[in-house]
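The methods section describes the discrete structure representation at length, but only in general terms. Each protein is reduced to its one-letter sequence and a matching series of backbone shape codes. I believe one specimen quoted in the main text would settle the matter. An entry of this sort, consisting of the sequence and the corresponding backbone structure tokens, reads as follows.
***
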Amino acid sequence: MTKNKVDGRENSNPAFRSWGEEQLARLFERNKIAYQYEYPLAIQDQGKVRVYYPDFRLPEYGLIVEYFGVNNDPAYDKCTEHKMEVYRRAGVDGLFLTRNSLRGDWPARILGKIEGILQARLDRFCRLRKRTGGIQNSYCAGTAKIRTSRGR
């Protein structure tokens, strides 16, 4: 039985809305990534504050994960595009997945995407620090070494 992690506590009610969401929850649990399922998120959309419920919030990483599991439905696709645009405009970092995202070696690919989002944040931070003459720290000094050692 899958357990939801809500506010850091385990909840034995596996109320996932889809197969894909359940797979993602298992991935997070196996990798000890804390998550909150359908945690409310207030965002300004078309001049009004609306509450969205992204599938997963990864509080330790400050990002959301949305699984869009319906295929070949123009109305659903339109809502999906709108939701991703709202998140983007609000500055919410997110990973947006479809059923095709969960094929092949998808766990490594998704963990790699999460790492990529976090690395991009660190890179932006270090560029800003360097541009503003801020004190360099070990993270920023080590960023170039990490990226170089991986061949990027």
